[in-house]
Every structure is written in C-alpha cells, then in structure tokens.
Design a protein that fits this description.
Blueprint (H helix, E strand, L loop, with lengths): L2 H5 L5 E10 L8 E15 L4 E7 L12 H12 L7 E7 L9 H16 L6 H12 L3 H8 L2 E7 L2 E7 L6 E6 L6 H5 L8 H19 L5 H4 L14 H12 L4 E3 L6 E5 L23 E6 L6 E4 L4
Parallel strand pairs: 3-4
Antiparallel strand pairs: 1-2, 1-11, 2-4, 2-5, 5-6, 7-9, 7-10, 8-9
The structure holds adenosine-5'-triphosphate and magnesium ion.
The site of magnesium ion has 5 residues, from helix 3.
Function: Catalyzes the ATP-dependent phosphorylation of L-homoserine to L-homoserine phosphate.
Enzyme class: transferase
GO molecular function, one term: kinase activity
C-alpha cells in the first residue's frame, strides 16, 4: 500500500503543537523557545472537500476553506511526501492567541505538516518539517521551536531553513503577559530600519552568544544576556505599552523581552536570582496589567507530537 492509499484509509490523526517565542531579545530571527501552551488538531480523512471546525483562538475569524493555514500546510505536507487526500475534516482546538507574538502561524503550519506525516503513516522527520515550514512561514525561528521543542537556533542556507535544538537549563520557565491588542508580524517588521549602527550590531552579536550560555547553563546571566539593540525599541510605536512593561520589569531585575514580533512580553524565570539585581527580593513576575492576560509557562521539551488512529 502506498502512502496515498494508506492516507485515504480513514484513520484519524491527532496533533499537539506548542506556542513559541522568537528572538528572546538579541537573537533576532534566530532564537526560539517552545512553550507549554498548545493548539490541538484532529484530522479525519474522507469525502471530497475540506470541513474545518475551529474552537478557541481565531474562531469566527479564520477562513474555514482551503485557504485556512492548517489546511494549506496539510496540503503542502502531503505533496512533499508524494501523497494526496481529496477530502478531510479538520478540527482545531486553539489556545495560542493570534497576532500576539506567540507563534500561532508557525504552530498552524508545523501542526498541519505534522498531520500530513501522520495521515500517510510516515515517521516524523523533524528537520524536513522545519525546512518545509520555513518555506511556508518565510522565517525559520518560530517553526524551528515548534518542530523541535526546547531552545532552538535557526538559520537559512540559501533558501533552506535549518535549525538545531539545545537543551534549556533545568528550571527554566517563562511568564507571558499578553495584551488584548494585536500586532501583525508584517506590520512590526515594517518598522525596522534598513541599516543599524555598527556598535549596536556588535553588542547584539555578543549578547546573543552570551544568551546561548545563559539559556543552557548560566541562568544568572539572563538579564544581561537578553539586552537587545536591533529590533525591540524600533517597534515601540506599534506597541508602546509593551515596551514600557519590558523596561519596568527589567528595571526590577527581571529578564523581560518582546516575544517575537510582539506585543506579548515574556519574562524568563529561573530559581536562580538574576545577578544584575542582587539586592532585589523580586523573583516572580507580578500580576498582569489591566486588560492583559498572564500565562505561567514551562518550556515544551519535544515540539510537535502526532498520534495516529485515535480521534478521541
Ligand atoms: N491556528 C490557526 N489557524 C488558522 N490560521 C491561523 C492560525 N494561527 C494563525 N493563523 C493566521 O496567522 C495570523 C497570525 O500570524 P502572525 O504571524 O501575524 O502572528 P503570530 O504567529 O501569532 O505571532 P508571531 O509570528 O509574532 O509569533 C492570524 O491572523 C491567522 O490569519
Ligand atoms: Mg507568526
């Protein structure tokens, strides 16, 4: 039985895919962290077209036809595996908020591609998932963390998206402050200058190298290591309240950053006291500002997961 006919045999596939935070301060377009907030998909092959049901984030907003991002990713995944399925039902239970900098588009894309692997009975090839998801998303940082879990460093080689996974230091966790308002990634990218001062570029190169050490072994350096001079301040006009919150939290010694293209603010936490503020008693990020949501998150260790043959 080839992949296509196997796929059409009717077994449902279930997928769980994590939210992700990209950049992490200085690691612009390269660093990603997988977080314990998940979208869940169930795909049941059958019929001749697609039926899409969405619960949670994006319900009533996203398209429910072939243009739905998960459907497009399933189709692209099937094509890359040499398979095709004329019709299926897709059920989405979405917990990752849209347009907030927590990687909802990457979760949709990586989740859809992983579903294609499940539908065809193909063992997940995570590096191939990263490469294809990068083609659909246009940048590799979030898709890398959604596909590989943990802490990821992504890059492009020619047109190809690639990534490695590093093990986050034990005890690393995060608090996300998510405002009501959205910022579209495209809009936030439009605020960046085409050139930056050499000194800023040099500072970011050093800080991003330090951040690899801080995230994997030296969490007491997180505050210093998350300093950024390449993108966060430039985006202030699109998210002034987020930048104000980042400064306030950093001012009391907490390693706060803009998550992805914003406007979510992410604070990295660890039982070790941040070294830059040895006098502070503040270690737990406080309550969310009015109108914002606060999520206490762990680091997702494995990235996207797929189960076949059980639609429950
Ligand atoms: N689960 C989903 N199903 C369908 N479409 C989705 C889904 N998640 C995201 N999208 C599409 O992607 C858009 C959000 O993408 P965008 O890249 O702007 O934000 P984000 O991915 O949430 O944040 P960031 O890329 O900064 O981490 C949504 O408005 C919607 O069109
Ligand atoms: Mg996105």
């Amino acid at each position: 039985m080839n992949a296509a006919s196997e796929a059409a045999s009717g077994a449902a596939v279930r997928v769980r895919v994590p939210a992700t935070s990209a950049n992490l301060g200085p690691g612009f377009d390269a660093f990603g962290l997988a977080l314990s907030l998940y979208d869940e998909l169930t795909v049941t092959p059958g019929g001749s077209g697609v039926t899409v049901e969405v619960d949670g984030a994006g319900a009533g907003e996203v398209a429910l036809d072939e243009s739905h991002l998960v459907v497009r990713a399933i189709r692209a995944g099937l094509e890359s595996l040499g398979a095709s399925i004329p019709g299926f039902t897709l059920r989405c239970q979405n917990r990752i908020p849209h347009g907030r900098g927590l990687g909802s588009s990457s979760a949709a894309i990586v989740g859809g591609i992983a579903a294609a692997y499940g539908l065809t009975g193909t063992p997940l090839d995570r590096d191939r998932v990263v490469a294809l998801a990068h083609d659909l998303e246009g940048h590799p940082d979030n898709v890398a963390a959604a596909a590989l879990g943990g802490f990821t460093i992504a890059w492009t080689e020619g047109p190809a998206g690639r990534a490695i996974r590093l093990e986050p230091v034990e005890g690393l966790a995060a608090v996300a402050y998510v405002p009501d308002t959205r910022v579209l990634t495209k809009e936030a990218r439009g605020l960046l200058p085409s050139a930056v001062p050499h000194a800023d570029a040099a500072a970011n190169a050093g800080r991003s190298a330090l951040l690899v050490a801080a995230l994997t072994a030296r969490p007491e350096l997180l505050l210093t290591a998350t300093e950024d001079r390449l993108h966060q301040d430039y985006r202030e006009p699109a998210m002034p309240e987020s930048l104000a919150l980042v400064r306030k939290l950093r001012g009391i010694g907490l390693p706060a950053i803009i998550s992805g293209a914003g406007p979510t603010v992410l604070v990295l936490t660890h039982p070790t006291r941040p070294s830059a503020d040895p006098g502070s008693t503040t270690q737990i990020p406080g309550p969310a500002p009015d109108g914002w949501s606060r999520y206490e998150l762990e680091i997702d260790p494995v990235g996207v997961q797929v189960w076949s043959g059980d639609a429950s």
